[in-house]
């Protein structure tokens, strides 16, 4: 009989830690609803103690989404208590607490003598702390996951001791993360097999794996993990996450699906929702999917060479190991236009996985009409892009009111802008090396600030001359990265919107930091 693998999705927690990713609370709730449609088993909704916005997002998801909701916490009482507060209304809840176990982490993070003088003493402190904190978490709920951070580089004998203590204290899931993406599949699989063999109470917990992709091996390591006894896999949509990301949910799930002949495992994932989920996460997070990305990349089912096309025409299986339809990529393109109406728009959005409230639909309908005026045919990708543009964003501090840009081969590019900030309008003009530079300089002058841009990219969302342009601007402000997205059929307008959106992300961050300062319980741990 095939055995079930629990899919623990951490797009909203580890995924959101991707450099430059920023999701609003409403976007997180919408993604969580889509993850439920995809039928993941557990949603890790965030790290509640880290900020009021994180707390609020986890709480809203707990109120609205009916799968197991996990909240992350360090092995500290305040984290655990806050994590529970945020998930207490969920019908199924899990506290996920973690301690660092590798010598790299123990020596690097617990350097002070407070944890002991020698490595052996420090290891003992971590062991005791893990036990105590799992026991403390257990006073709030029954479903407790414990992670041994950097388990991939942790000494096996010590790891086995920590795992045994965590289970003894009440952990029901033991997660073995390859935090730095260092291990190789047979080595990682061996670690799981040895834990199964050495830890005497291991049958009282489910073993989970959480692999990072620094060497491009996250999915391979996860597969090796389940072949050696793990029964939960932690993963993210599009493989987003810290640095090179996490194991990609779609790749792991489709490997089990396509190679049913080889694997004795199954998941409950509704694979037909994979594509919608991938595109929703990409549009909201601003992290584009690389064209050649397995399963969900734009080219994943494209056949370019003549020989391949000929083979495909004769028999799809010549070059295709799964159908696009099996992951929700359909050829039937439903095109909307000006006369499609609000109802038609709502219906198509629902088919793409979105469930806007009536107020949100008002906003999107207004943007849709503007777009349909400029562009006769509105495609699915246009709609997805519009959804990621404004609908679920926190209210903007800086809003673009007007731009005028003059540029030519023999003139100095000049831009004039008007920006609204807290009900007041600020206008100014500037020149630049090119029209975009002039535009950004004019915005800087209008709002009397200066920003450093790390990267600027522009792409067309759909094909054809009237395609919408999507601009992503990444900025570094006080050592923190912010990314802003703007879309329009006019790429200069899209550029100005993206620039202001990155500045608005920074404003949101500053407001959050102020709120944190005024809440003493959170200040204690940050
Ligand atoms: O990579 C990691 O170790 C983590 C833990 C917090 C589970 O994300
Ligand atoms: Zn991680």
Task: Describe the protein.
With 526 residues, this protein is α/β, with parallel strands linked by helices. It has 4 domains: 3-285, Aldolase class I (TIM Barrel, Alpha-Beta Barrel), CATH 3.20.20; 301-328, no CATH class; 341-378; 393-515, Double Stranded RNA Binding Domain (2-Layer Sandwich). Helices cover 41% and strands 20% of the residues. Strands 2-3-4-5-6-7-8-9 form an 8-stranded parallel β-barrel, surrounded by 7 helices. Strands 11-12-13 form a 3-stranded antiparallel sheet. Strands 14-15-16 form a 3-stranded antiparallel sheet. Bound molecules: 3-methyl-2-oxobutanoic acid (KIV) and zinc ion. The site of zinc ion has 6 residues, from loops.
Shape: globular
How much of the sequence lies in strands comes to 15-25%
CATH class of the largest domain: Alpha Beta
Total domain units = 4
Q: List the strand order in the largest sheet.
A: 2-3-4-5-6-7-8-9
Helix content: 40-55%
Q: Count the E strands.
A: 16
Number of helices: 17
Q: Label the CATH architecture of the largest domain.
A: Alpha-Beta Barrel
The name of the CATH superfamily of the largest domain reads: Aldolase class I
Distance between the termini: 48 Å
CATH fold-level name of the largest domain: TIM Barrel
Rg from Cα = 25 Å
Summed over residues and divided by their number, the pLDDT gives a mean of 92
Low-confidence blocks of residues: 520-526
| SS-based class | alpha/beta
For the largest beta-sheet, the strand count, sense and barrel status come to:
8 strands, parallel, barrel
Q: Ligands in the structure?
A: 3-methyl-2-oxobutanoic acid, zinc ion
């Amino acid at each position: 009989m095939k055995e079930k693998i629990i899919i623990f999705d951490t797009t909203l927690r580890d995924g959101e830690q991707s450099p430059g990713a920023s999701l609003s609370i409403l976007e997180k709730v919408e993604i969580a609803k889509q993850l439920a449609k995809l039928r993941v088993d557990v949603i890790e909704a965030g790290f509640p103690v880290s900020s009021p916005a994180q707390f609020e997002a986890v709480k809203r998801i707990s109120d609205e989404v009916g799968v197991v909701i996990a909240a992350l916490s360090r092995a500290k009482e305040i984290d655990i208590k806050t994590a529970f507060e945020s998930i207490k209304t969920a019908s199924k809840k899990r506290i996920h607490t973690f301690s660092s176990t590798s010598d790299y982490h123990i020596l690097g993070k617990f350097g002070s003598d407070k944890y002991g003088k020698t490595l052996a003493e420090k290891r003992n402190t971590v062991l005791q702390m893990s036990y105590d904190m799992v026991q403390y978490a257990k006073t709030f709920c029954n479903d407790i996951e414990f992670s041994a951070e950097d388990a991939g580089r942790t000494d096996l004998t010590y790891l086995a001791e920590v795992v045994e203590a965590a289970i003894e204290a009440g952990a029901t899931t033991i997660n073995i993360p390859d935090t730095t993406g260092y291990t190789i599949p047979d080595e990682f699989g061996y670690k799981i097999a040895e834990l199964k063999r050495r830890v005497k109470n291991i049958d009282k917990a489910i073993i989970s794996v959480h692999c990072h992709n620094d060497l491009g091996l996250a999915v391979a390591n996860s597969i090796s993990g389940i072949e050696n006894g793990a029964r939960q896999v932690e993963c993210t949509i599009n493989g987003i996450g810290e640095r090179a990301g996490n194991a990609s949910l779609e790749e792991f799930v489709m490997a089990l699906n396509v190679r049913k002949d080889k694997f004795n495992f199954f998941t409950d994932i509704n694979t037909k929702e994979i594509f919608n989920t991938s595109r929703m996460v990409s549009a909201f997070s601003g992290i584009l999917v690389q064209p050649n990305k397995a399963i969900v990349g734009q080219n994943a089912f494209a056949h370019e060479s003549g020989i391949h096309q000929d083979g495909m025409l004769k028999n799809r299986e010549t070059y295709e190991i799964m159908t696009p339809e099996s992951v929700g990529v359909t050829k039937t393109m439903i095109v909307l236009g000006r006369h499609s109406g609000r109802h038609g728009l709502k219906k198509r959005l629902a088919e793409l996985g979105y469930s806007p409230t009536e107020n949100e639909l008002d906003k999107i309908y207004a943007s849709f009409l503007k777009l349909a005026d400029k562009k006769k045919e509105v495609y699915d990708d246009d709609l997805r892009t519009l959804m990621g543009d404004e609908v679920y964003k926190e209210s903007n501090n800086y809003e673009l009111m007007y731009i005028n840009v003059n540029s030519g081969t023999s003139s100095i590019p000049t831009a004039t802008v008007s920006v609204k900030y807290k009900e007041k309008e600020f206008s100014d003009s500037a020149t630049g090396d090119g029209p975009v530079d002039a535009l950004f300089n004019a915005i800087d002058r209008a709002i009397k600030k200066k920003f450093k841009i790390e990267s600027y990219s522009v792409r067309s969302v759909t094909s054809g001359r009237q395609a919408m342009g999507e601009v992503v601007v990444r900025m570094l402000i006080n050592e923190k990265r912010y990314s802003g997205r703007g879309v329009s059929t006019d790429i200069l307008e899209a550029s100005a919107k993206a620039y202001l959106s990155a500045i608005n992300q920074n404003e949101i961050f500053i407001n959050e930091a102020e709120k944190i300062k005024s809440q003493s319980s959170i200040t204690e741990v940050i």
